[in-house]
Automatic annotation (TrEMBL):
Protein name: poly(A)-specific ribonuclease
EC class name: hydrolase
Residue span of region Disordered: 1-31, 560-593
Key words of the record: Cytoplasm, Exonuclease, Hydrolase, Leucine-rich repeat, Magnesium, Metal-binding, Nuclease, Nucleus, Repeat, RNA-binding, Transcription, Transcription regulation
CDD domains assigned: Deadenylase_CCR4 (cd09097)
Lineage of producing organism: Eukaryota, Metazoa, Ecdysozoa, Nematoda, Chromadorea
The enzyme's E.C. designation: 3.1.13.4
Subcellular location: Cytoplasm; Nucleus
Length: 593
């Protein structure tokens, strides 16, 4: 970032600013390179162009002439990208200037301005701000929100000693903005509590086994950088601050099963396992594959996935770690696509086979018919963090196929051990899939299949190695045998990830509807709070991660009450039930209202 030393373009011109637009004779394109690096592209129309009725369009405006007050009509010119108000006699800047939301360049130099409106901090499109040669002593902390600023010139102002000292340091302009952002008083109240949305009720006259599950990407410390989240104060990105809010949020919901992503190895041991053990949980953890190649100290900072469960409701029978790159290589080591695109991404999945205990029944005084008793039965819980890069949608699909294949393999073991069919085993697959509801990943998981010609497969469309990941005999279809239903859709949860550059649903809880009946979900984050407080993105001092947790409650359907699930819908058909479900809504169960 430049501290904005004034160029000769600004110093030498009597009127200051960028100078008058060029005539066509001076430059036919109207392009004028200013000495500050900006390109002026406006020029004056010729008489011939005016006579021919050529329309004009301008996005830059200069106002000169020792102006003391600005007309309110100026704030209606919201199309402006550059505004030159330098070399006037302005003593104040109206707060309405924030209505010019498209400004990237604002020159207020050589005026008599004594203070700046806090609303200036809402003009987040600003890249160049010239405030030099005014009468500013202090700056509003809100200026720290201008995270796109490349040039900030404060020279020639009677700045307070504290601000002047920082400004005169190397890279002082950037340090000033960080200082202001870090000292910005957060006047916003915490967001309202999220409501619980009931979908159907369990019959209180019958003993029903129920539990809740939470899925949450907690944003590990090494990814929470000022460069990545420049709109968030650095103190609110600090792990020591965020971890308290994260644990507080987990404690608030107190789900029976918790699945977490982006948990650093050391933080699992020192924070999450310790804190949750005190709350009655046990847990397992697996880091990304790269941890195997690192020393003890480096390994501490590798992130991975974790699963926790309340020990009064579940015991763990067995657990599995799915290293997607290793598994994919074992299945298709001869594929160049697998070697070049899948193998370098070391995402993992984690699976726990839990054994259900008596406390899943809220009213244990009721007698439970032997055929309806689910105590001692298995519950398979999986979590995964799929690769993030949008350019690698094919890798996301292959990782998701690997996950579905490995879960199917686990179900083969579980069904033999517990002497039930694979379809009767209740399954949860939770995680950050880094994929929107219109993606190939979501279609594949929720519909049970995807066409071989899907655009998200990219060069894998011609790669025969994918047949090894499919349960279908039709080579034009890639499928898996699971029947999965997403707990949330866009009508109920419009986003699970909210940053400056991206807002959308990418976290999911999938469940097998023939064995798990969805009773309710945690409602959406309050959109009004976000809008009214002009929240640019998460993390935020009140929101510790760039993701929000999602949560659902399920009733465990006894095997005697389960219905045989229909085959998945053909790719391209409209799904019934919630978004992406590949089958009609499950039939009504006698023990549910």
């Amino acid at each position: 970032m430049s501290s904005g030393d004034m160029s000769s373009e600004y110093k030498e011109k009597p009127c200051g600013g960028a100078g008058q637009p060029l005539t066509k004779s001076e430059n036919s394109d109207g392009k004028k390179l200013l000495s500050n690096g900006m390109l002026r592209v406006h020029r004056v129309l010729t008489d011939e162009e005016i006579n021919n009725g050529r329309p004009t369009w301008w996005t830059e405006l200069e106002i000169h002439g020792k102006v003391k007050n600005l007309s309110p009509a100026l704030w209606q010119l919201t199309h402006l990208s550059c505004l030159f108000l330098n070399n006037n006699n302005l003593q104040r800047l109206p707060p309405e200037i924030s209505q010019l939301s498209n400004l990237t360049m604002l020159d207020l130099s050589h005026n008599k301005i004594r203070s700046l409106p806090t609303e200036l901090g809402d003009m987040i499109s600003l890249c160049h701000l010239y405030l030099n040669n005014n009468q500013l002593r202090v700056l509003p902390y809100e200026l720290g929100k201008l995270f796109r600023i490349q040039t900030l010139n404060l020279a020639g102002n009677p700045l307070s000693p504290e601000i002047a000292k920082i400004y005169n340091e190397p890279n002082g302009a950037q340090k000033i903005l960080q200082f202001l952002l870090d000292h910005l008083t957060i006047n916003t109240h915490p967001p309202p509590e999220r409501n619980w949305v009931m979908i159907r009720h369990a019959d209180p006259e019958r003993p029903i086994a129920t539990f809740t599950v939470l899925c949450y990407n907690v944003l590990c410390d090494k990814y929470a950088t000022v460069n990545q989240y420049s709109y968030c104060p650095s103190w609110a990105l600090n792990w020591e601050y965020r971890k308290t809010l994260i644990i507080k949020e987990i404690r608030t919901y107190e789900a029976d099963v918790i699945t977490l992503q982006e948990v650093e190895t050391e933080q699992y041991r020192a924070l999450f396992y310790t804190e949750l053990k005190n709350l009655g949980y046990n847990g397992i953890f697996a880091p990304k594959t790269r941890a195997k190649t690192m020393g003890d100290e480096e390994r501490k900072y590798v992130d991975g996935c974790a699963i926790f469960w309340k020990t009064d409701k579940f015991d763990m029978d067995k657990h599995h770690v799915f290293e997607f790159s290793t598994i994919a290589m074992a299945k298709a080591s001869g594929s160049e696509n697998i070697i070049n695109r899948v193998m370098p991404r070391d995402n993992i999945g984690l699976c726990a086979v839990l054994k259900i205990k008596e406390n899943v029944y809220a009213n244990r005084r009721m007698s439970i018919p032997a055929n309806d008793n689910v105590v001692g039965n298995p519950l398979v819980v999986c979590t995964a963090h799929i690769h993030w890069d949008p350019e690698f949608c094919d890798v996301k699909l292959v990782q998701s196929m690997t996950l579905a294949n490995e879960v199917t393999r686990v179900l083969e073991e579980v069904s033999k051990k517990y002497m039930i069919t694979q379809q009767q085993v209740p399954v949860l697959i939770c995680g950050d899939f880094n994929s929107l509801p219109d993606s190939g990943v979501f279609e594949y998981l929720s519909k049970g299949q995807i066409t071989r010609r899907h655009m998200d497969l990219k060069t894998f469309r011609e790669d025969t190695c994918l047949e090894k990941f499919s349960s279908s005999t039709d080579k034009n279809i890639l499928s898996h045998p699971l029947r999965l239903d997403s707990a949330c859709d866009l009508t109920s949860i419009p986003f699970t990830n909210y940053t400056l550059d991206f807002k959308g649903m990418i976290d999911y809880i999938f469940a097998t509807p023939q064995s798990l009946a969805r009773l309710g979900i945690l409602g959406p984050f309050d959109a009004q709070w976000v809008q009214s407080n002009k929240i640019l993105g998460f993390p935020h001092p009140h929101v510790p991660s760039d993701h929000i947790p999602i949560m659902a409650q399920y009733a465990i359907i006894p095997t005697t009450h389960q219905r045989q699930p229909p085959p998945p819908q053909q790719t391209g058909q409209t799904a019934a039930g919630v978004i992406g479900s590949g089958y009609p809504t499950p039939p009504h169960h006698s023990f549910l209202r």
